[in-house]
Amino acid sequence: MVDNLSSGVWGVVATPFLGPSLEVDGTSLSRLVKHYEGIGVTGLTVLGVFGEAARLSGEERRTVLEVVAASVELPLVVGVTGLATAPVIEEARQAREVVGDRLAGLMVQVNSPDPRVVAAHLNAVHDTTGAGIVVQDYPEASKVAIRTADLVRAVQAVPSTVGVKAEAPPTPAAVAVLTTQLDVPVFGGLGGLGLLDELAAGAAGAMTGFSCPEGLVACVDAWRSGGYDAAREAYLPYLPLVNFEAQAGIGLAVRKEAIRRRGAGHGVRGEAAGRCHAGVARPATGAAPGARPGRSAEGGAVMDLGIRGRIAVVAASTGGLGRAVAEALAAEGAAVVVAGRRGDLAVEIAAGLPEAVGVQADLTAPDGPRDLIEAARAAYGDPDILVLNGPGPKPGRAVDLDGAGTDLGSAVDSLLLAQQRLVAQVLPGMRERGWGRILAVGSSGVAEPLAGLVLSNAGRAALAAYLKTLAAEVARDGVTVNLLLPGRIATDRVAQLDAARAEREQRPVADVTADSRAAIPAGRYGTPEEFAAAAAFLCSAPASYVTGTALRCDGGLVRSL
Fold it and tell me: Which residue in 28, 75, 304, 393 has its CB near the most CB atoms, within 10 A?
């Protein structure tokens, strides 16, 4: 049995950092939460978006929980990051272990537009931990949009729900629906921007970060005693700051700097390595919630690809370009299924990634595609991202093909039919959820057939035609379908092709390689990491308007437009 959250203000706690080491500043954190307790908040929400939980290591998360639990006696809601069930459960277990009976609820983000998927996810978290669930609908951070009616259905299917945090604008309209159809308290967020109208719509209070949380408490207390007019009068002095902190991109940084200047934070002012010192947001650029910490080599902000917690299946990812793509997606926070014919190698590679499993898969076997996706679902749930990939067929000339078409048939089977069967396993779920990314690792031979590679040219061109047709058919469902065409990338496959050409031409491999590099305007072979960076973007949330495209990653090798 779990109890609903009490009404009032649940302050969302910032995470301060200190000094050149950029460690969690426990002293400032303790001072901050004691201030919350002193002004009369109902409870605290720790490790939320304002707490930058997605940018903390597991040990740092534990440190934050330990400091807060030791500093105040307030009930605590603890946020968990990500959208995949398995990693969320691990974070939830840590929260239960550290906080114990003080845990008033686990704040879990909506992970799908499908209420059935959301309910299964939330029930799994509760069943594992026994904790009450606070359902957070915050599409700005999660990149998942769910209709309010579907959110109602999801919450009704989760008996352990103890509260809902409504942060999908316009929040007053959502609060009005949720409060009339649910028997759990609904709280507003978004820095208190819509608090007055949310209270008028039936909200139980506020669960948000604000540099002057006294204003939130004053507003809610005045609402209880005097209604809308009294609440407006109490909140009016704080509204300019509420609006100032609501600025896109820099609001988080502004809020933490205001807290620091008030004296709740402690430490040296300034920025370093993407983490700011106590009271200043991480990353230093003041990027929007969800952005990865850090800067690019040129000094610009790192783009948020919006796939943290997404589930990605990468075929043939135990080596070469497939492995590089799997590593890039994992680095962006996706839960990755590493697949290959050598199951032991897939497991070994997955063990080195932040959140991944390794699966043995032979996609040319009749049941290979189905078995792979079933393994992915067992580990994490329905895939959101599918990367099609496979070993290239042997070199050969068109004039040397036999009349039976045996080799050509094998190439089409591995490069087209096996990939289509894999797509068929994931496409219905992607369309139903309204979000999906399908990306095929192709070849520059799709744009300009390569001499001596007739099997690859024919098979990959057939796949390109299929995917181009598919892209137009599913674009309105929120599913993008693209190809990424590598030129000469420094992989074992390219080394084998260079060696084969050297043998045919009776020349040293080094000379063949030098000639190949000279033909590339960039003057070099690409790296797997460069290719994988392009792949990660095409799988990302910002690439939602890119579909039906064959993007070349070839250093300018193909000269056609």
Answer: 28
